[in-house]
Amino acid sequence: MSNTDDSMVPPDALEGDQNVTIPDDGIAELEASTEPSRDIAGSRGSAGSQDEFAPLGMRRIDENGSEIVDAMAGRASVFGFGFDSIVDAIQQSATAYLGDASAFEDDCDAVEEAELKSLLHQVLGESNVADSVFLCPTADTAIEKAISLSRVSRAGKAFRTIAMLGSDHGRTAMCRTASGRPELHEGFGPMMAGFAHVPPGDLGAVRAVVDDQTACIVLSPIQLLDAARPIERDYLVGLRAICDEHDILLVIDETQTAIGSSGHSLTYRAIAEDISADMVVLSAGLFAGLPGGIVIARRRVVEPAVIGVHSYPMQNAVACATLSSMLAHDLPSAARAAMQDFAVALAESIGDYEFVRDLHVLGFTIGIETDIESVEIVRAARSRGLRLEAAGETAVRVQPPLIMDEDDRESLLRRVGESMQAIKRETAELGV
């Protein structure tokens, strides 16, 4: 295991990427868990079918009818599954008018103020100005809205988008084109015109492709398919300077990083607190697993308005319930200590495995970089009742909720350790 630091988790742990040092004297090898299968809290009947259980916290029933700990639960909701106020919002909105999703946005009435905008202002703070708020039916349509706004704001004189190689911005035609991954382009014929891709971290490459027709630069603050590695602060600051120099909009895609999960309300502000994006696209953690996206935009992009709250009332209700609950629980600031404690505990739980190379930590978005193919780690975890997600070819990631009860936290740590122990046994048997 490579050590990059003398300290396990630095004091400024929430201000940027933590390459968490894995201690050389890690824990003893874990044996297969004897942890009993726990009925998910909120059970509505005896075991037998998924419909008889209510997911709660990080626990849910998978497609095979087995109880699992879902390490990605924070991406669905910052409170995990089954949070009362969010469940209530879904139930209440389900019995009310659900909108007309077939209506074109041009037919939707814009309003100047709405509860959603007010709550965003309170959660994000005054420094993260949301002059306009666009509620969208999916994360992908929110990305498209942001890119479209960048073009419209320049009155058709600029239309090009600069994005990053290795990025993944979604699955619609525009989102695939914006993504810098060849596998998302293959088999679809020509991609949309007006997109250029540059290596992340290379400001010179950005300057080389900027021209008078460039409308925006779009990037995610964490490279989720590169071991969940956050971008460097200097790079983000440099992009802001390039945008200011050339009158280009800076668009931050946070659709895959849950709101507040960095310890700051917005993930990019945990990396560079002293800059502001022109637009931020949100989704993860806000909609309880339902499709939905939000674009917040500064006045320089578009005249202040709130659009979409009447067209997508369920998404609006769930997002408002989430934001209200975040305020009531003083999130994300109240979770910062727990984030650091969890990173330390995770480092300790996998510290004895030589194939673990590094941990990349930004709050509760944690990438585990290894020498093992990620599909093998995901498979080993699944067989032990744990959902992890690949973060590149040889890395996996976890994105737990901002609030975890002790049982969920310990189960997550234990099952991660068990999965790594299984990988160790398998590689030893193969002589790897």
Task: Provide structural commentary.
The structure is a single chain. The protein is of the alpha/beta class. It folds into two domains: 18-78 and 333-430, Alpha-Beta Complex (Aspartate Aminotransferase, domain 1); 92-328, Type I PLP-dependent aspartate aminotransferase-like (Major domain) (Aspartate Aminotransferase, domain 2, 3-Layer(aba) Sandwich). It has helices at 73-76, 84-94, 115-124, 139-152, 173-178, 203-209, 233-246, 267-271, 313-328, 336-349, 374-382, 406-430, and strands spanning 18-20, 59-61, 67-70, 132-136, 160-164, 195-198, 214-219, 222-223, 229-230, 249-254, 279-282, 293-297, 306-307, 356-362, 365-370, 386-387, 389-390, 395-398. An eight-stranded mixed sheet has the order 6-5-7-10-11-12-4-13, sandwiched between helices. Strands 1-14-15-18-17 form a five-stranded antiparallel sheet, with helices on one face. Strands 2-3-16 form a three-stranded mixed sheet. The longest helix has 25 residues, at 406-430. Mean pLDDT is 89; it is low at 1-14 and 21-51.
Number of helices: 12
* Spatial separation of the terminal alpha carbons: 16 Å
What is the number of strand segments?
18
The largest sheet, given as strand count, sense and whether it forms a barrel, is:
8 strands, mixed
Task: Supply the CATH superfamily name of the largest domain.
Answer: Type I PLP-dependent aspartate aminotransferase-like (Major domain)
Kindly report the average pLDDT value. 89
Structural class: alpha/beta
From the coordinates shown, what is the CATH architecture of the largest domain?
Answer: 3-Layer(aba) Sandwich
How many independent structural domains? 2
- What's the Cα radius of gyration? 22 Å
Question: Helix proportion of residues, in percent?
Answer: 25-40%
